[in-house]
Design goal:
Elements: H1 2-27, H2 30-52, H3 71-89, H4 91-112, H5 124-141
Helix pairs in contact: 1-2, 1-3, 2-3, 3-4, 4-5
Amino acid sequence: MWGILIALLSGALMSIQGVFNTEVTKQSSLWVSTGWVQFSAFLVCVLAWLFTGRESIGALWQVENKYTLLGGVIGAFITITVIQSMGALGPARAAMLIVISQLIVAYVIELFGMFGVDKQPFEWRKILGMAVAIAGIVIFKWQK
């Protein structure tokens, strides 16, 4: 239950953040807005680290798969693409497409056991679920 609540909170925060970032971008620029998002997130992380235990930063250099350290780089591109998609499509349409993309990519990662994730067997019901979600986007986007 806790995981479900956290996932729902994450989705809500991502949508709110996308709207906020899109508005900041309109008043500044894409790179200024993205830079601010990443910098302010860094400050929050530093403060949280100072108050919650101060684990060794050197542990980062011990990470086995170095490519996994690219999460922040990917995060910058996530911020940019969310801003651009929300500006072009509006928050609801952009969020739906973002979620569908997340589902498809996450399923492919599980299916092939990529990036250290346990490999999962193919299941038609998951494909059907994604198809229903895609149909939902088509219905939501449908204009008379």
